[in-house]
Specification:
The chain is of the alpha/beta class. The chain is built from 12 helices and 15 strands. The protein folds into 3 domains: about 1-80, Orthogonal Bundle (Arc Repressor Mutant, subunit A), CATH 1.10.10.10; about 85-185 and about 305-330, Response regulator (Rossmann fold, 3-Layer(aba) Sandwich), CATH 3.40.50; about 190-305, 3-Layer(aba) Sandwich (Rossmann fold).
C-alpha cells in the first residue's frame, strides 16, 4: 500500500501537498476504504525521508476536511470516502483551431465539476513540448496529449514515455506503442480511404481527384490513404501543397481540401471560371463545421467526430479505463460533390 504515495523531491508541488494528493487519489481509485489505517507520521516521514512537520501539515489538512481521523494510541484512519476531489488534468494540443475547440468543449463538458483542466499548446515544437511536460510531471492526475510532431519524433516519444501509462491519454493520433495506456485516435490512412470508398459511385462521375495537403502541417498518412483509394479504383490523381488564386481548373475535377483558405480559394476560382460546384467541379473539405452545412447549400466533408473524441477522452478519466478506441470517421455527402 506504500506505493500509493507519490512523493518526489524534484517536483514543484510542496511535499505536504503531494501527501494530500496521494491519499485523496488513493481514495478516489478505491485503494483506501473507510476505516483503513494509513501510515503514522513517523512511518511516513521515515519511509520517504520527510520531516515530521511536513507530514503533520498534510495530515492537519486531511483532518480538517474530515478525510482522516486520529485515534489516540492507534494511529490515523480513513474517515470518509465521499470526497469531492477534482481530477487535475493537463491537456496538451498541437494547435488551436475550430476543430480543437469542439474537442476541448466536449472534454470540459463531460468532465464537468470533476475536472480541473489546464490547456497548453506545443505547436508541434518538441522543445516546447518537453518544457511543458517537464514542468507538469507529477503535478496532474492525468495527461491528455495530441502527439502531432513532424520533426524529432523519437525525442517526442521519449518525453511522452516519462508519463506513467495509467495517467496517459493519447488523443487524435495514436503512438502505436504496445504499452497499456488510453487512446482515442484517428487512423488517418484507413479513415480517408474507407470513407471515400463509401461514395465511389459519386466519385466515378469525375475524371481526376486532387488533394490539397498543406505539407507537414497535417498527418502524411492522409496522403497515403488518398493514394490508396485512387490506386484501388484507378483514378487519375494529384497531390498539391495548396490552391492558389491562379489555380487552373478543368471540368471533371474533384478537389479535396484541408485548409480553410484552400476551400475559400477553390470556391472563388470556380466563380471566376463560371464553373458550377457539384456539377463541373467537385469539392470535399476535411473536418466538418456548422458553416460547411450551409455554405453553397452544403459542402461535402470527410470528418472525424470531434465531439465524440473529447467526450471519450474525458470518460477514460471518469471510468478509470485504459483502452484504445478508433474514433468514428465518415463521409458526409452534400451538394458540393
Amino acid at each position: 500500500m506504500h506505493s500509493i504515495y507519490e512523493i518526489d523531491s524534484n517536483r514543484r508541488t510542496p511535499k505536504y501537498l503531494q501527501i494530500v494528493h496521494s491519499i485523496t487519489k488513493a481514495i478516489k481509485q478505491g485503494h483506501y476504504k473507510k476505516g483503513d489505517r494509513i501510515l503514522s507520521i513517523n512511518e511516513l516521514s521515515n519511509e520517504f525521508l520527510l520531516s515530521r512537520d511536513t507530514v503533520q501539515k498534510a495530515y492537519d489538512i486531511l483532518e480538517k476536511d474530515r478525510i482522516i481521523e486520529a485515534v489516540k494510541g492507534k494511529g490515523f484512519y480513513i474517515n470518509r470516502t465521499d470526497i469531492i476531489n477534482q481530477y487535475r488534468v493537463l491537456l496538451v494540443f498541437n494547435k488551436l483551431s475550430s476543430y480543437k475547440r469542439m474537442i476541448y468543449d466536449s472534454f470540459i463538458r463531460t468532465l464537468g465539476s470533476k475536472g480541473n483542466v489546464e490547456l497548453k499548446i506545443h505547436h508541434s515544437n518538441v522543445k516546447l513540448f518537453e518544457d511543458i511536460i517537464e514542468a507538469g510531471l507529477g503535478e496532474y492526475d492525468y495527461y491528455a496529449i495530441m502527439p502531432h510532431f513532424y520533426q524529432d519524433k523519437c525525442r517526442a516519444f521519449e518525453i511522452i514515455k516519462q508519463i506513467p501509462t495509467d495517467q496517459l491519454i493519447i488523443m487524435d493520433k495514436d503512438l502505436n506503442w504496445p504499452a497499456h495506456y488510453a487512446a482515442i485516435y484517428q487512423d488517418f490512412e484507413n479513415d480517408i480511404a474507407e470513407a471515400m470508398e463509401t461514395q465511389l459511385p459519386t466519385f466515378n462521375k469525375y475524371k481526376e481527384l486532387i488533394l490539397a495537403h498543406a505539407g507537414e502541417s497535417y498527418p502524411l498518412e492522409i496522403i497515403s490513404g488518398f493514394k490508396k483509394f485512387c490506386f484501388q479504383n484507378n483514378f487519375r490523381y494529384r497531390v498539391i501543397d495548396s490552391i492558389s488564386e491562379n489555380e487552373r481548373l478543368e471540368k471533371g475535377q474533384v478537389y479535396i481540401v484541408i485548409e480553410e483558405t484552400d476551400l475559400a480559394n477553390i470556391i472563388k476560382e470556380c466563380r471566376n471560371h463560371e464553373l458550377v460546384i457539384g456539377r463541373d467541379i467537385g469539392i470535399v473539405s476535411y473536418n466538418d463545421t456548422p458553416l460547411k452545412e450551409i455554405l453553397l447549400d452544403g459542402i461535402s466533408v470527410l470528418s472525424t467526430d470531434h465531439h465524440k473524441m473529447g467526450e471519450q477522452a474525458a470518460k477514460f478519466i471518469l471510468d478509470q479505463k485504459t483502452e484504445k478506441i478508433r474514433n468514428q470517421f465518415r463521409f458526409i455527402l452534400r451538394k458540393s460533390l
